[in-house]
Amino acid sequence: MQVTWQADQVELVVRPCLSLCQWVPTRADEDLFACQGCGSQWRPGAGWTPVDADGHVPAEVRHALLTSVRPAAGAGRADSSTTTGS
Ligand SMILES: [Zn+2]
User: I need a surface site. Which of 6, 39, 57, 85 has the fewest CB within 10 A?
Assistant: First the structure.
């Protein structure tokens, strides 16, 4: 039994998204981010956080998360720091 190496196939490298991911804000919509690696799109409120190939959350993404409008879950407790517990 002999294994024949097929160089053409061996050189077919499918790069995983993780090695390419780089999230950048799009020009069209400052709340919309796009992954330069796999073409995914993300915007604040999507329920997950995009991470670059190096494992860090891009500064632009963190900024977007901080400044994005939050869901209505906290409505009525806008200023929780003054809660007196009546
Ligand atoms: Zn990606």
Answer: 85
Answer whether 42's CB lies under 8 Å from 35's CB.
yes
Would you write out the chain's pLDDT as a tens digit for each of its 86 residues? 665 555 444 555 555 667 889 999 999 887 899 999 888 889 888 888 888 988 899 999 999 998 876 655 545 555 555 555 56
Sequence-distant (6+) residues with CB within 8 A of 20 are: 36, 37, 38, 53
Report how far residue 63's alpha carbon sits from residue 71's, in angstroms, rounded to the nearest whole number: 17
Residue 40 CA, ligand 1 centroid: distance in Å: 6
Euclidean distance between CA atoms 52 and 20, whole angstroms:
8
Model-wide pTM > 0.70: no
